[in-house]
């Protein structure tokens, strides 16, 4: 029902859950940073995550598919290699998923994770303070994703995505410059920018991309394109940011972002 009448509301739960996971991971890092006298503390989050993985697997294993999805799947031709269909029939949507994944990956890694590194190395903040600020930024993003997602169908998801991308282009440079001003208020302002824009875009982008593919292979196309691009560009983004900073300064990071 929600998938047909409120597609953006139905699709908000994937980015919302992902953002919740990022917030919890950042929260764990923040808590560990407050107890540097315990060098083994970093192992605690990994132990907790192992239990979480078991719970997630159990829930997904026992989760039944919806009636509408099952009915739709029975009507459609089954492809033995859906990725081939994606590359043959939906190349434009596939490359769009790759492009958006690259943008979001850099925004998250540079605007939150590398931002924390800059707060420590450029502004002289303690590790615990830097972790607290970036955890707050991710919490804000999580809240914005939920608030925007529940209104996205009436506000038009495509307009929301374009608004978020426009704000990203305008505020990327100020965001990165906030990290080296040696001011707690300005540093917090930077994470306010990060959380706001991340929340606006992430609330609608998964649904927008998924519905760009044909039904028979839309999840294969969107998930593979997103995962491939996030692995390539997200995995190398911190290295690229450090190279840019060492050679051209933080200004170059914001300009590229």
Explain what this protein looks like in three dimensions.
- The protein has 257 residues and is mostly helical.
- It is 82% helix and 0% strand.
- The chain is built from 13 helices and no strands.
- The chain is globular and about 55 Å long.
- The mean pLDDT is 86.
Structural features:
single chain; 257 residues; mainly alpha; globular
Look at the helices and sheets and give the structural class: mainly alpha
Content of β-strand: under 5%
Mean pLDDT over all positions? 86
Distance between the first and last residues' Cα = 38 Å
Number of helices: 13
Largest sheet: number of strands, sense, barrel closure: none
Number of E-type strands: 0
Report the C-alpha radius of gyration, rounded: 20 Å
Low-confidence stretches: none
- Categorize the overall geometry: globular
Please write the string of helix (H) and strand (E) elements. HHHHHHHHHHHHH
Give helix % range.
over 70%
Topology readout:
Layout: H1 2-5, H2 7-11, H3 13-33, H4 43-61, H5 67-75, H6 82-89, H7 91-121, H8 127-149, H9 152-155, H10 157-178, H11 184-210, H12 218-248, H13 250-256
Helix pairs in contact: 3-8, 6-12, 7-8, 7-11, 7-12, 8-11, 10-11, 10-13, 12-13
